[in-house]
Amino acid sequence: MAERFRPYVTVAAIIECRGKYILVSEYDEAPYPVFGQPAGHLENKEDLIDAVKREILEETGLKLEPQGLCGIYTYVKDNETIQRYCFYVVNDTLPENLTARDPDEDIQTVAWYSREEIAGLKSKYRTRLVKHCFDDYFAGKRYPLDILKTIRP
């Protein structure tokens, strides 16, 4: 019997405060830290908005509400398919110092970066999705949260 196909569903957040953006670093398969937005997998019985709020809290220590989506991406690599929903938050009153509360202890650092600094880290992005999410956000792509519907029994 063939193995049943299951795409990975992930959420990510672009968090902007006074012209700076949060990036987290972690060790993935590279011998150096890789950078990306706060992001992670959708968990069982969780909707997308709850998932991104949880990931933001775990990876930045911030309790934030997403304001909208900047894109939905399908990333096909090797033998897997990843469906990513990238949300955004703009808030001019966030603290400078951030602390991850990552239960998996994967996050090495969480910090604010300028747009130029983010572009300079391109060779160290965790995945290609990081670039596409930021490109769409910087291009002004914005979609309302009400396009997402969670249906429960």
What does this structure look like?
This protein has helices spanning 48-60, 115-120, 128-138, and strands at 8-17, 20-27, 33-36, 39-41, 68-77, 80-90, 107-113. The termini are far apart. A hairpin with a 2-residue loop joins strand 5 and strand 6. It is built from 3 helices and 7 strands. With 153 residues, it is an alpha+beta fold. Strands 1, 2, 3, 4, 5, 6 and 7 form a 7-stranded mixed sheet that branches.
Looking at this protein, list some descriptive labels.
alpha+beta, 20% helix, globular, seven-stranded mixed sheet, single chain, 35% strand, 3 helices, 153 residues
What is the string of helix and strand elements? EEEEHEEEHH
> Level of helix content?
10-25%
How much is the radius of gyration in Å? 15 Å
**pLDDT < 50 stretches:** none
Structural shape: globular
Strand content: 25-35%
In short, what is this structure?
The protein has 153 residues and is of the alpha+beta class.
Walk me through the topology.
Elements: E1 8-17, E2 20-27, E3 33-36, E4 39-41, H1 48-60, E5 68-77, E6 80-90, E7 107-113, H2 115-120, H3 128-138
Parallel strand pairs: 1-6
Antiparallel strand pairs: 1-2, 1-4, 2-3, 2-7, 5-6
